[in-house]
Amino acid sequence: MSDFLKLPRWFDLHTHFRQGENVAAYIADHVAMGCAGALAMPNTQPPVSRIEGGLANDGWSIEGYRKTLNDAGATAFEKLIVPLYLTRETTADDIERGAKSGLLQACKYYPPHGTTNSEHGVPVEEWIGHDVLRAMEANDVMLCLHGEQHGLAGAEYFDAKATAESKFYAEWMPRLLEAHPNLKLVCEHITTKAAADFVTTAPSERVGATITPQHLLYTVGHLIQGLKYHLYCLPIVKFESDRDALRDTVLQAGQTQFFAGTDSAPHTTKATECGCAAGCYTGGCAPQLYAMAFEEAGADLFSEAGKAAFKRFLCTNGPAFYGFDASAETFTMSKTPSTTRTLAAEDGTVIPLPTGMDLELTWSLSV
Ligand code: DOR
Ligand code: ZN
User: Fold this and answer.
1) FRET label pair with 25: which of 159, 205, 311, 348, CA 20 to 30 Å apart?
2) Predicted model pTM
3) Is the CB of 278 under 6 A from ligand 1?
4) Is a pLDDT exceeding 90 seen at residue 56?
5) From the CA of 46, how far away is ligand 2's center (Å)?
6) Which ligand is nearest the CA of 44, by number?
């Protein structure tokens, strides 16, 4: 039996490359892990909230941000998607113009004040029935959702019975699907059984979901035992029953709805006196972490079924759901240990999740 896996280069359909001097290092880490393409999140400062034109006080444009990423090395990717950050300024005309020009493939919903740089988000209830979403339906533009109920505090935000995420999926997602029958959605970085069940029972051609390595590997117990702030991300890691549900979905033979989206989020200052920045950095090590998670879920990646499930999740389901080709290039993963390194960025150090969690990688990559 061989101890390596040859796979098509994979796609990270949810990641953060930020802005400024460090972008090139973040992109290089992605290219070095066999990543063929990325969906680069628009929660920059200011946000990516316009279609075309230069950087202005109120926002980047998709055109301008794409150029910044390409100048920093993203031309090595086969695919680069920059979604439009939905704000109060977004119009139906933006959507139509953006789609027609080819610059716009997806929009991003952020719950206001729900996570890093999400203060420009507009509450989900205001989008339901909105002509911006109607224009997205008419122009085949995907809606990427950070699915958490906004504005909840304390016990309402996180409880064993219900969390901001499970509330969002119970309350808003059915209404969104019903009000916009032609809208395609990606439920991003899902963390709960409630979200996994919602996606599984929704029409498979309309609703997909990304899952991060950390949500397949860890639970809230890992986070709070010793307060491991490198594992702090939003939505927060949940309970074992939630992790089990996520693991079950990715191992379902032939599943087409769940795919890789690391939510890799570099922070050069993570813990401060008044709190902790949300985000786990998995640049350079995401396929290894996903492989370890699949194994913990019970998959033998050297069996036909195990390899097929892994390949679907990492390499082929995402492109198929977004409607572009999987990569014809390959990379190789070997069952030999590897190490992560910290990333010295312009304004500080980015600690990758395994380093922060003292986790040894049992897989390595060659690209
Ligand atoms: O943990 C997170 N980090 N969740 C998000 O939604 C945003 C991200 C970031 O940009 O740092
Ligand atoms: Zn994110």
Assistant:
1) 311
2) 0.98
3) yes
4) no
5) 16
6) 1
